[in-house]
Design brief:
The complex is a heterodimer. Chain A contains 8 helices and 10 strands. Chain A is of the alpha+beta class. In chain A, strands 8-1-10-9 form a 4-stranded mixed β-sheet, covered by helices on one side. The N and C termini of chain A lie far apart (55 Å). By secondary structure, chain B is an all-alpha fold. Chain B is globular and about 70 Å long. Classes of the chains: A alpha+beta, B mainly alpha. Chains A and B meet through loops of A and helix 2 of B.
């Protein structure tokens, strides 16, 4: 088979995928499903910079005291409590902000912001901390030496170091002693065309996940419509996680 | 002197017998054939999974052929309780040869050595 044939096959495959997605969306109605199927990338295809994954968090909808996103993250990625909270891995945490003058409180989940210009990648001496073409910032634990420079460089305190031996990790989320880790945007789910576990777990609809490069995606539309903020936007890191209502 | 020589000779004759540790009994995986030829896998499995790991982690390629997760799915060995054993067990597919060859691997400090129960 020559190259042009191959291209035709790819176009055909994409067309079929899209039409299946439209058909499924039409039959089963929920837009979520349509979104999931349309984004599924074939397993043998590499990620590209055409996509940039991002998240919009509406802090007005985020309930104080609700911890579902954090729990979903722990279950999905097999993060277990060690009994020593100061060394527990935290990929996402709930933060409460209080306006001192008015007393108004805001609750929001804080996670790796998946910067377009990630300081953790800049400082990593081995190249273990890297940004995938589609904007997801990850740690390649195979080459991480556990020096923790990235933890110091991160303005969001998003990374954790694993101090003790682990066992029975999830097959899709290998983790181990002596390496640094952080939110992966549930990369194993995203690669299947699903949303991160925290987004799926949020009953309030406070979290929107999608491709910020696709003008038709829900997240792009919302970002166009509403006022959103990058935390420490002054650093100019071009964040993948944006907040509404702060 | 003669006795010494006899002992040396005896040892030399006996050497092949006690030098050969029993060959490892390699448990059979699921299905008829591994993803590559068995002989090729024996010598090159580490190259395949090393290549695949970079493809998956950095480029998001999640094909199953050389994925460690699939090795573990196919080559799971059941213990006495009928549940798959972990790499700590000498019966584990990876342990069988790696113990024999005295090659320690660190894959399973992070990866699960048992198939995931869904």
């Amino acid at each position: 088979m020559d190259k042009s044939d191959n291209n035709i096959d790819q176009y055909r495959r994409r067309f079929l995928e899209r039409s299946t997605a439209i058909a499924a969306g039409g039959l089963l109605a929920p837009g979520v499903l349509l979104h999931a199927i349309a984004n599924a990338r074939p397993a043998d295809e590499a990620v590209t910079g055409k996509v940039r994954w991002g998240m919009l968090i509406d802090s007005n909808k985020c309930k104080t005291g609700c911890n579902k996103c954090v729990q979903a993250c722990e279950t999905e990625n097999g993060l277990k409590r060690t009994g020593r909270p100061d060394i527990d891995a935290q990929w996402i945490r709930k933060v409460t902000l209080k306006q001192k003058q008015t007393g108004h409180t805001t609750s929001l989940p804080m996670l790796c912001q998946h910067c377009a210009e990630p300081p953790c990648v800049d400082v990593c001496p081995t190249g273990a901390s890297f940004k995938r073409a589609d904007g997801i910032v990850l740690v390649d634990k195979h080459i991480c030496i556990g020096c923790r420079y990235c933890m110091m460089a991160c303005p969001y305190k998003a990374r954790s170091f694993i101090h003790e031996d682990l066992s029975d990790q999830k097959a899709h989320a290998p983790r181990g002693k002596g390496t640094v880790e952080s939110c992966t945007f549930c990369v194993h789910r995203v690669d299947k065309g699903e949303s991160p576990a925290c987004v799926s777990a949020c009953d309030e609809g406070a979290m929107t996940f999608g491709d910020m490069n696709d003008p038709a995606s829900e997240i792009s539309q919302r970002l166009r419509e509403v006022q959103s903020t990058e935390i420490r936007g002054d650093l100019g890191l071009n964040l993948g996680v944006r907040y509404q209502g702060i | 002197m003669r006795i010494m020589l006899r002992i040396v000779l005896l040892l030399m004759c006996a050497a092949p017998v006690w030098a050969a540790a029993p060959m490892p009994e390699i448990p059979k995986g699921k299905g008829e054939q591994c993803v590559e030829d068995t002989a090729l896998m024996r010598t090159n499995h580490m190259e395949f999974i090393l290549h695949q790991r970079d493809e998956t982690v950095h480029r998001g390629i999640r094909t199953k052929k050389h994925s460690l997760k699939e090795c573990i799915e196919c080559h799971a060995v059941a213990g006495d309780d009928g549940m798959p054993v972990s790499v700590q067990s000498p019966k584990h597919f990876c342990s069988v040869c790696h113990r024999y060859a005295a090659v320690s691997i660190d894959c399973f400090q992070c990866h699960n050595s048992k198939p995931q129960t869904k």
